[in-house]
Specification:
The chain has 390 residues and is of the alpha+beta class. The protein folds into 2 domains: 296 residues, no CATH class; 92 residues, Beta Barrel (Elongation Factor Tu (Ef-tu), domain 3), CATH 2.40.30. The strands form 4 sheets. Strands 14, 15, 16, 17, 18, 19, 20 and 21 form an 8-stranded antiparallel beta sheet that branches. Strands 1-6-2-3-10-11 form a 6-stranded mixed beta sheet. Strands 5-4-23-22-26-13 form a 6-stranded mixed beta sheet. The longest helix is centred in the first third of the chain and has 20 residues. It is globular and about 65 Å long. The relative contact order is 0.16.
């Protein structure tokens, strides 16, 4: 079944979504939906149900010399808000953007020194591209970076921290690819192929106003727990407060004896204090031995606090107020929304309300297995870049 493609013109930032199941038809509908404006780059977010090889070939065939990057998802955000089993795209007009990209292979073996070479290459290629543009962007142009990374690589902390340091004063955001909560394989798209154990870095330069942001709707409580047994390499916690991790977590959140599900983890995350701020450390799943696998780095001795939620809709509205104060009404918000946030919206029957707000404020993006902002890998946040009009 093919859903409607919803192109938008706005101020020259075209967006589109299709539910066509056949990759060739889906790619054709996206190409039509993005219109005729000359594009510097297309970013796509695709449901993992698509045949990846066929889709990559179809997208390359439709967009020709225009680079296409993206990743698989745990849900998509299209021009109409939350959606599933879809292919979503946003185009960046050549008139307003200069963009260079790089593929990072084998992120499981990524070393901090690799980031220097990647950053130097991106910056050098950006400078060359800026110098050869038919219409210069102007001296007031600024840059931001986006990272899309294999969401099961367990390499996000190392990669994002090193890249942010290497890019120095360039703001960076991104997210971890998903696979609809199967936790089997996730992929990034670059130069006509999907890649596992990889990341894509894109460096955007534009004269449009923009701001990189992050928000979360949780605050700390007085319920503390100490990680007393962990396997940091695999992000597994075996013991909390010297008790089996799953059992002790359930007791602390008031659900002792209940089966631990993604919905429970979405509603009862834990936070850790870093640099004077609390950051969510979301739980991915409970294992057969009652250990807990986390979405991001965890280690013995860390003190975790059970988090308490605030109104997520009011939190989002406050974010938009801040964005509009910085860049005006955004022409595009390229957003990375943690899958656990979306699960919570569904559980609290706020999905339609939040979806309406996402559509109203021109959000396009996907539901992720973790988010990155500057040098941090975080969980259960809404993170991205808001881009204003010309």
């Amino acid at each position: 079944m093919t859903g409607p493609v919803r192109p938008t013109s706005g101020d020259g930032m075209p967006r589109a979504v299709t539910h066509a199941e056949r990759p060739d038809e889906a790619a054709r509908e996206l190409r039509a939906g993005l219109g005729e404006v000359a594009l510097e780059l297309v970013v796509v977010f695709c449901a993992p149900s698509y045949d990846r090889e066929a889709l990559a070939d179809a997208l390359a065939g439709q967009f020709g010399m225009v680079p296409v990057i993206g990743c698989t998802t745990a849900g998509e955000i299209g021009p109409g808000g939350y959606t599933t089993n879809a292919l979503v795209a946003v185009g960046f007009p050549t008139e307003d953007f200069c963009i260079v990209t790089a593929l990072v292979d084998h992120v499981d073996r990524f070393e901090i020194a690799d980031s220097t070479a990647i950053a130097r290459s991106l910056l050098s290629r950006r400078d060359r591209a800026m110098g050869t543009r038919p219409v210069p962007l102007g001296e007031e142009a600024r840059s931001f970076a986006m990272l899309l990374i294999d969401g099961l690589s367990m390499s996000e902390e190392t990669v994002v921290s090193a890249l942010h340091n290497a890019l120095i004063d360039i703001p960076l955001f991104g997210a971890s690819a998903g696979d609809d909560l199967h936790f089997e394989r996730t992929f990034v798209l670059h130069e006509g192929a999907f890649h596992a154990d990889a990341a894509v870095v894109a460096l955007f330069t534009t004269t449009r106003p923009f701001t990189v942001f992050r928000t979360q709707h949780f605050v700390s409580s007085d319920r503390k727990m100490v990680v007393t047994g962990a396997d940091p390499q695999h992000r597994i916690v075996h013991e909390i407060n010297a008790e089996p991790a799953g059992r002790e977590y359930a007791r602390l959140v008031g659900l002792e004896g209940e089966p631990l599900t993604p919905m429970i983890f979405a509603s009862h995350p834990v936070v850790v204090r870093v640099g004077g701020q609390y950051h969510v450390r979301s739980i991915q799943k409970v294992n057969d031995d009652e250990s807990l696998t986390f979405f991001c780095a965890i280690d013995e001795g860390i003190v975790l606090t059970v988090a308490e939620g605030v109104d997520p809709v009011a939190n989002f509205d406050g974010l938009i107020e801040g964005i509009e104060a910085e860049v005006g009404a955004p022409d595009l918000i390229l957003g990375c929304d943690c899958i656990l946030r979306r699960l919570e919206m569904e559980q609290r029957q706020l999905n339609a309300v939040m979806s309406d707000r996402l559509a109203r404020h021109r959000v396009v993006g996907f539901c992720a297995y973790g988010e990155q902002v500057n040098g941090m890998h975080v969980n259960q946040t809404f993170t991205g870049v808001a881009i204003g009009g010309r």
